[in-house]
DNA sequence: CAAAATTTTTTAGTCTACTAAAAATTTTAC
DNA sequence: GTAAAATTTTTAGTAGACTAAAAAATTTTG
């Protein structure tokens, strides 16, 4: 709050509007779902005009994108913090990774909203969405790859393992279960975890 | 054309309109993309009013759904026909499976349209879409599971392999690469195939 | 062939995202 | 404090999905 020297009044006001808009959108989206919310409603709660929302974020999906970008930053921090003590084996590494991701996503937004996010990332209508998601996937896979290399260095994994290929394979596997988890309201997280464990046990040599 | 006894004139006309609508939609979707096509345009080419299109299919996504349902039926037939001679090992089974799916999807619709399909199946806005997709995934995974059991019966696979778990794991793995393939215009099918091969080699014991 | 039943079309209208331009407001710079 | 610059709001409008009800057309039925 003491940085009035670096940011002009105008910039601070803009920042404030931005923050108010995504805060309003977040609560409304979770409350009623993306499709049932109008830009008008967001604008009203944020105390700006609907045209301003458009000028700031372009489209309704643009607002959602901003929401998600924020959440992504935190997820990567969370992973770095909580994967610190590396699990003893591959299966538990992936299960832990999966659990952290599920926990994180649900504390920020709910399933219906995440569905819209994943949906938008695939549809390609909003190229920024696709880009953001590709980048996030890359960063997440990198976390797994890093951990695999740590395990290799610690002698807990065969030396001729290809960390990059294995990392991506495991990421894709858990991501499929993540999407399945998000796509269905009735799918519980512990069930998804069991399914993933079955996947891993069926594939990996013991 | 000789079944005027079983189908009344009215039913045949309805059938005809239905067929004309999805044929019109198919060509228009591929030509210009879902978002750039209006119901009006579909109706005009099909020779009906726009209200009729709504009455028949509900929403624009509903039209797309009908298109996809048709394609699904054919895909399952194709798989049954072409997987007849079972490949010698797991990796080649999955690679073949993947190739058949990619080939089939691209002969029917193009990537932009398939993106909308996958996107709609996840968004959950159109519950029928999600349902159709869950069912298709189930059937596709069942094909893999069946082939795995054949391999087990032929002694080419360990007897204590859990076919169901392994089948789903492999399906999810190839499906992740399929979605990646569809999501990006620049991703070529042979590159996707190489990626999938790397996934499989990294995971499966040799 | 005429009445009844069915279905489509026409008509009219709502809703909301999104856009462009003019008008009003507010910050900034001197 | 005032002129200039930046930014928001107001205003006005387009487009297209979707809906409801009345009107028109067509098939079916006896």
Write up this protein.
Two copies of one chain form a homodimer. Residues 1-5 of chain A have low confidence and may be disordered. Chain A has two domains: 1-58, Homeodomain-like (Arc Repressor Mutant, subunit A); 60-203, Tetracycline Repressor, domain 2 (Orthogonal Bundle). Chain A has helices spanning 9-32, 39-46, 50-57, 60-82, 90-108, 111-123, 127-153, 163-183, 189-203. Chain A is elongated, with a radius of gyration of 20 Å. With 206 residues, the first copy, chain A, is mainly α. Chain A has nine helices and no strands. At the A-B interface, α6, α8 and α9 of A face α6, α8 and α9 of B. Chain A binds a DNA duplex (30 and 30 nucleotides) through α1 and α3.
């Amino acid at each position: 709050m003491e940085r009035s020297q670096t940011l002009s009044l105008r910039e601070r006001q803009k920042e404030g509007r931005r923050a108010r808009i995504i805060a309003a959108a977040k609560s409304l989206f979770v409350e009623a779902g993306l499709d049932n919310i109008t830009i008008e409603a967001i604008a009203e709660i944020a105390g700006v005009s609907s045209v301003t929302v458009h000028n700031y974020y372009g489209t309704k999906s643009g607002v959602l994108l901003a929401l998600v970008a924020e959440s992504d930053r935190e997820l990567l921090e969370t992973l770095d913090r909580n994967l610190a003590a590396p699990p003893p084996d591959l299966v538990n590494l992936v299960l832990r990774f999966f659990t952290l991701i599920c926990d994180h996503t649900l504390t920020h937004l709910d399933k219906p909203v995440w569905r819209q996010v994943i949906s938008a990332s695939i549809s390609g209508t909003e190229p920024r969405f696709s880009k953001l998601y590709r980048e996030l996937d890359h960063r997440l896979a990198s976390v797994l790859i890093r951990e695999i290399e740590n395990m290799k260095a610690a002698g807990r994994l065969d030396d001729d393992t290809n960390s990059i290929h294995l990392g991506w394979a495991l990421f894709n596997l858990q991501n499929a279960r993540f999407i399945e988890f998000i796509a269905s309201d009735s799918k519980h997280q512990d069930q998804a975890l069991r399914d993933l464990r079955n996947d891993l046990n069926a594939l990996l040599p013991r």
